[in-house]
Amino acid sequence: MTVLRSWPARRLLLGAGQTAAVVLLVFALTEALPGDAAVALAGDQPDPGRIAAIRETLHLDRPAAERLGEWAAGLLQGDLGSSLTSGRPVSSVIGDGFGPTLLLAALTLLLLVPAAGGLGVLAARYEGRLVDRLISSVTLAVYAVPEFALGVLLVAVFALHLGLLPPTAVGYDGDLLSHPAALVLPVLVLLARPVCSLTRLVRAGMIDALASPYVAHARRYGIPGARIRYAHALPHALGPAAQQLARTVDWLLCGVIVVEALFVIPGLGTVLMNAVAERDVPVLQGLAVVFGCTAVVLNLGADLVTYRFVPRTGEAA
């Protein structure tokens, strides 16, 4: 019980330190960006007096360390600051992009877990046979294709050549749920590589579990094969898969910039690109906090799942 109490605490403290390091790094990198936010906000023909007034209004004339301390103090109170370009709260700007990204992530995960689990178990059941070789070959080939190339290929075939699906989400005003056809191609692109990696991890874990002594013991007792695979072997194969699934969810929720840009989806990736282009430092910092906290929570959850099914990992941690 002592290990069980201290192990999550160590993971949580480590994650908090990593989040703080990410926020500090992002602040430093945004400060190092070329150009001046006040000049960008002043327009095409900036006036020196107007630039000075903007810098004073946005507190850009104050030292970076002072602005960092003030922003960090507000962050502890749940205040992410205000956008330099629109004046809106950063939480509201991030919230506008969170909906489409969350929708894509949820649909992808809804298909990812059963597809990868089923293919992995199927490949492990027929290890070394035609089915196993076919699944392994296809997953390896699909995983090698970049998201951008796969997206362009799918758009060319299903949208431009066959005319079955819309090529982008333009014209839907962000209401993607009311136009499910616009979600098919982005979800397929997001699903392709994660399902390949998870399938291979589940397959490897299932092969090791099916070759273990406790599975052989269960077979001697006459337990049905399906129950052995899903009730005894599969839980012990979920450790590495849970870690990979956490990284996949983090990748999805933090905005897949390439996919969102390709299909013109106004998600977190679009918010991030706009913030970089406009030198909107508070939005960048707010996104860093959201991304960092998301990664910490997901990785901690994956570690707890791994510890639950493979307790010895906690002793090694």
List keywords for this structure.
0% strand; single chain; 76% helix; disordered C terminus; 15 helices; flat; mainly alpha; 317 residues
Task: Outline the structure in words.
The protein is built from 15 helices and no strands. The chain has helices spanning 2-31, 37-42, 48-57, 64-76, 90-125, 130-143, 147-161, 181-210, 213-220, 225-236, 238-253, 257-262, 268-277, 281-309, 312-316. Helix 5 packs across helix 13, helix 8 crosses helix 10 (225-236) and helix 13 runs antiparallel to helix 14 (281-309). The protein is flat and about 85 Å long.
Our Rg estimate from Cα atoms comes to: 24 Å
Q: In this structure, how is the largest beta sheet organized?
A: none
- List low-confidence stretches: 313-317
Secondary structure: number of strands: 0
Order of helices and strands: HHHHHHHHHHHHHHH
Shape descriptor:
flat
Strand content range: under 5%
